[in-house]
Write a structure and sequence with these properties.
Blueprint: H1 3-24, H2 28-48, H3 52-77, H4 89-111, H5 127-137, H6 139-161
Helix pairs in contact: 1-2, 2-3, 3-6
């Protein structure tokens, strides 16, 4: 086993562990932080596979912008940890059914012979060429996504900025209860 294989399996273990921790945490801030660790592991995996541009985009877009936005939303809405069961009984059966379907499809894809014996050629993309293509041909999509992120941030500010009326027993500085 060479160094790349050891690095791959170590990164895969970190990604799976961090994602599992993100899914099972009751406190949402901790879940977001574990998800950031998972995204950094994915970026390192992209870099290991020879795609430094994808690694940089993973860090900048997902671990940077999107996760910080989620963290701000969670902190501004002041959502507390739920005291109920970690997995409600009504959600267990659908989760098991979806996991079984996923495992069946993944197993079929893993054992199925594609019939091709050819070696795929490596596609190399220069970051400058990718940027030129993105901002020449898909500039509208980039602007729409940035506008959607701005609307989500403003929505979080509006929802997080509300205070109870002064005549309520809680007063203006009391924590609020957020109902799903």
């Amino acid at each position: 086993m060479n160094l790349y294989a050891v690095a791959f399996y170590l990164l895969a273990a970190v990604i799976l562990g961090a994602t599992l921790m993100a899914v099972t945490r009751r406190h949402l801030v901790h879940a977001v932080l574990y998800l950031i660790v998972s995204f950094f592991g994915s970026a390192l995996l992209f870099y290991l596979f020879g795609a430094p541009l994808l690694a940089a985009l993973e860090v900048i877009i997902y671990a940077g912008a999107v996760m910080i936005l989620f963290l701000f939303i969670v902190m501004m809405l002041r959502v507390g940890a739920d005291q109920g069961p970690l997995f409600p009984p009504r959600q267990i059966l659908p989760a098991i059914a979806m996991a079984a379907v996923y495992l069946a499809v993944a197993s079929l894809l893993a054992v199925r012979d594609t019939g091709t014996g050819g070696v795929l050629q490596t596609a190399l993309a220069d970051p400058r060429a990718f940027g030129d293509y993105l901002f020449r041909n898909a500039w509208l999509a980039v602007e729409i996504v940035s506008l959607l992120l701005l609307v989500a941030l403003v929505g979080a500010l509006v929802l997080g900025g509300r205070t109870p009326a002064a005549d309520t027993p809680e007063g203006p500085g009391a924590p609020r209860e957020v109902r799903p």
